[in-house]
Structures are given as structure tokens and as C-alpha cells.
Amino acid sequence: MRPPIDRLRVHYFLVKLGMEFHHPARLYLVGGTTMVYEGLREQSLDIDISYEVADEHDAEFTRVLRKLKEDMQLNVELASPGDFIPLPAGWKERAKHVGRFGLVDVFHFDLYSTALSKIERGREGDFQDVLAMLRGGQITLNELRAAFENILPRIERESLKRDPERIKRNFALLEKMAGEQGNGA
Q1: Structure confidence at residue 163 (pLDDT)
Q2: How far is CA 75 from the centre of its chain?
């Protein structure tokens, strides 16, 4: 079993990635990795990422990721909120720039998309992560509600895997929890 990921290990991974990959890329930190890097959670089991790289450099990027996984004894997983929910309009513009590591620009995946994917999954820890983002001011409940309303018709229309009624219930539960903790509006 590999050791858990903390902020320092995520940062060191990004530094090493920037040193070993020599082409432009856009890397997104996703989910728990963002939570850890932003100090909203102490640790995670893995580094969740999504990325964009030119087709001709994709195989090399994958090789570098595999090498870093082994050299640093990390769990690195490809994940995106878009794997679980339709992404709300403007998600790419809301990605928060973390920094540049070599030629790799690193961003936090849109936090509203992240929050909605956590709400969709509906585990207790997911709700706590969303509440932490609300408490920390990384997201607001009004903007989260707008993003939810943006994707709901697409969930109802496009998804056989997602139950719109369950997601509505999960969102209502999150709003109730936020209100009880003083994170409303």
C-alpha cells in the first residue's frame, strides 16, 4: 500500500512532472487532490488528474506519469468531473490556475464541476468536501445552484446512468446541510 498524499507530495509531483516533460501541457488537479492542495483536507489516497496535451506528445506524457508513479510511489489516477456529470457551461474558464511547472500549466478543475460530481456521488465525505469549499469561500451556494440548474436538464435528457431525482435529493440535502452550518446563499 502506498502512503497517502499530502500537499507537499502533490507539489513535489508537479515539480518533477515539469522537470521531466518538455512540451506544453495543461494539467488539472481534480477532486480530493484539489482539496489537499488547497488545505481543505489533510490527505488523499491518490493524485487525481485530467490533462490536455498535443496528440503527438500524449504517449510521452503517459510514460512520464507512469515513471513518476513508480519513482515516487504514488497512486495517480485519471479522473474528471465530466466522467460523472455533464460539465456546466463555463467550466474551463473557471479553472483556477495553480502555477506553471516547466511547460506544464497546472489548474484546479472547475470547483463547481467538482462539487456537483461530489453531490452526484452523495457520500458523507463528498458532502463534507463541498461544505468545506463553501466555508472556505472557494465556491458560493448561489453559483453552485446556478451550475446545478445548468446541468440538470442535460442529466434528465442525456444520462441513462444518472438518476435525476436522486441528484435533486442530494442537492437538496447539501443545501440543508449548508444552511445548518451557516453556509447559505
Answers
A1: 83
A2: 16
Q: What torsion, rounded to 10 degrees, do the Cα atoms 88, 106, 46, 172 define?
A: -20
Return the SS3 of 12.
helix
From residue 116, how far is each of 53, 80, 102, 170, 173 by CA, in Å?
26, 12, 31, 10, 13
Does the structure show a pLDDT above 70 at 67? yes
Q: Which H or E run includes 83?
A: none
What pLDDT, in 10s, does the model give residues 140-161? 999 999 999 999 999 888 766 7
Q: What is the mean pLDDT of the chain?
A: 93
| pLDDT at position 7 | 96
**Spatial contact of 29 and 107, defined as CB atoms under 8 Å apart:** yes
Angle formed by the axes of helices 164-180 and 124-135, nearest 10°: 50
Give the model's pLDDT for residue 184: 59
Q: Is 57 exposed, middle or buried (0-12, 13-18, 19+ CB in 10 A)?
A: middle
Helix (H, G, I), strand (E, B) or coil at 51: strand
Cell of 122: 452523495
